[in-house]
Structure formats: structure tokens, C-alpha cells
Amino acid sequence: MPYEIEKRLIPGIVNIPLKEIRYVIAHESGNSKNVGPDALEREVSYMSNNWRKAFTSHWVGDGGRIIQIAPVNRLQYGCGSKGNPLSYAQVELARTSDKEQFKKDYAAYIWLLRKLAKDAGIPVKLDYGGKGVKTHKWISDNLGGTDHTDPYSYLAAMGISAAQFRKDIENGIEEEDDDIMKFSNETTKNTVRDHIAQMVEKKYVDKSWLTKFDEGTMTNGDYDALCLIENQKKAAQK
Ligand SMILES: [Zn+2]
Q1: Distance (Å) from CA 138 to ligand 1 centroid
Q2: Are 100 and 37 in contact (CB under 8 A)?
């Protein structure tokens, strides 16, 4: 699922070239006092007002929203004097106490870290040697200049192990399946299947839709779109 990156660049922020592009950094806010519904907005506004102390290029939170507050490929103040000049982008994750919201935030976080690594032309790998996506902890352990250990403990508290995080960075997360068509019984399922088969037979829609239905990946949005096409074709025949 593509996400929208809302740009809210901090006016007057420093513009310092990197030494080299080696990393994209994964953070989390570490702010256990800011976990409410407005956590993302509060973090973004705090950082925007205090960027001289610390800032990153992106924030994620609020159920999968992404806000960019500083340019990529420019020095950010997020992971210490050793890591900053080598980091193309740095991504902060706002906390939440809501596990369901976390799932959406985490999916956007993974998507964004992967996208930024690809944009930067570095391996989509987590915390191995060499170039790639690095946690703030990896920078602390391997480069120094900082002593933070995020984002591991927050992720673990929300049910994501280090191994899972690594796997998700490397493979991405399966597209949100919230919108996949689900049926309470076989009869309704067959009714919908027959309907799609009929549309295919009348050549209103391509037969790949039936395959998609049989593979169990058809979304409610897909089906709505097919029904709309059917209505339009029928209307055109009159
Ligand atoms: Zn950090």
C-alpha cells in the first residue's frame, strides 16, 4: 500500500551535506509520556520548535501517518556525531498505547524505512555490517557518539521481536488485508463468485478477476469497482 508523505519542512533548518550515504536510521520517540491520540502531532511540533537540539527527517504515527519535517540527504541531528553525517534519512516512530494503532504505525514505519533505503541506494537490510538500515542502537554499539538503544524495547513491548523487525525490513509487510473480502458462509461466497463469473462470461471484466477471487485476495474495493463496470456496460447496451 503506498502511503502519502505529508511534507511539513521546518523553516530555516540547517542545510549541511552528508559525508557519505551509508545509512537510514530507525528510531522511536522513547517518550513514554506521549502515547495518546495526538502523540504524533505533539512530537512533530516539539521537534519543529527544538530542532537545534535534535531532529530527524521523518515521523510516523497516528495510525500510519507519515510526516516529513526535514530534507533527506542532508545532515540531521538524530543519532550522534558519528552516525549523522552518514545517514540519508532518519525516521522516528511516535508511541501509542493502542495496540491496533501500533499495527498501522508499524506497517507505515516499515514501508517508509524500506522506501528510503531504496531511494538512498543502500541495501534493504537491518543492522548488518556495511551500508543499510540501522537502528539507533546499532549506531550506539558500532559507531558510538550516542548511547540510545531505540527502537528495540518499544517494538518488543508491542510484540515485535528483533528478528521479526529484521524480517519485516527485508521483506516488507504483506499489504494490509483489512479490505479483503470475507464471507460468513459458503453460500454468500458462491453467490459473489457466480456474479463475478457472469461478468467474466459477458466479457465485462477480465477473467483474472476470478483468479484473484479464488486466490482470496479480492478486496471490497475491487468488487465495488467490478460492479460499477458492470452497471456502466449494461447502461451502454440499452
Ligand atoms: Zn533514537
Answers
A1: 10
A2: no
